[in-house]
Amino acid sequence: MGTLHLVRHGQASFGADDYDRLSPLGQRQALRLGQFWRERGQSFDAVYSGTLRRHDETLAGIVEGLGSAPAAQRLPGLNEYDSLALIRAVRTEPLERPDTPERYRHHFRLLCDALAQWMAGVVSPAGMPSWDEFSTGVHAVLEDIRHRHAGQQVLLVSSGGPISAAVGAVLGTAPEVTIALNMRIRNSAVTEMSISPKRLMLQTFNTLPHLGGNEHTDWVTHA
User: Fold this and answer.
1) What is the per-residue pLDDT for 89?
2) Cα(180)–Cα(117) distance, integer angstroms
3) Architecture of domain 2-80+130-219 in CATH?
4) Which of 5, 20, 59, 209 is most deeply buried (CB count within 10 A of its CB)?
């Protein structure tokens, strides 16, 4: 039986003008994951990723630490939803920069509300697909991997939204549970699914095996 390793990107630049790039810590998280896998003899038969910059930079760090990996298949279906478009769909006032703990919490409260309304079909954020189209795209990638890679080791680098949608599809979770899963996925965290010809099954969720030990305590981030 094979394993699909879903990795959320390393810490990005939350609160900056351009979120879609890894912070220096995010780069170290990705490199450390690759090094961890190399130390344990992990290798991959296939690699998939979204097409966002933070996906590319995360994968580059993992491959540097790992030593080598197959060329990635870059798929727009693994890209994150547009969180700002979602929030603007439920809030018309200008958004404050989330540069304090309270503003940070407020930002994610708005996002959770917007996600719930998007999933229910109440709002249609500008430039975004519907939730059904978004989740169907993620599910199509999973089905393709299941058919192609039973018995193989597969790496997939994406974002919290597609990964939580993938877990939700496998477990059949309600939308509110999918949102809760999304909000808890940590940067560079690994979620594993077993791959068989018949199904994908969840094995682990949101783990950070590469950041164990006191020396990496302050490397655990969520944005």
Assistant:
1) 95
2) 14
3) 3-Layer(aba) Sandwich (3.40)
4) 59
81/4 Cα distance (integer angstroms): 22
| Domain ranges, ordered by start, for the chain | 2-80+130-219, 82-127
pLDDT reported for residue 33: 98
Distance between alpha carbon 18 and the CA centroid of its chain, in Å? 18
Query: Which among 161, 210, 156 is positioned nearest to 183, based on CA atoms?
Result: 161
Closest to 167 measured CA to CA, from 205, 131, 136, 194 = 205
> pLDDT tens across 122-167, in order?
999 999 999 999 999 999 999 999 999 999 999 999 999 999 999 9
What angle, 0 to 180 degrees and rounded to 10, lies between the N-to-C axes of helices 175-184 and 160-171? 140
Flag residues of the chain having pLDDT under 50. none
3 state SS of 1: coil
C-alpha distances (whole Å) from 187 to each of 86, 150, 198, 220, 223 are 21, 27, 30, 7, 7
CA distance linking residue 75 with residue 26, whole number of Å: 22
CA distance 21 to 55: 9
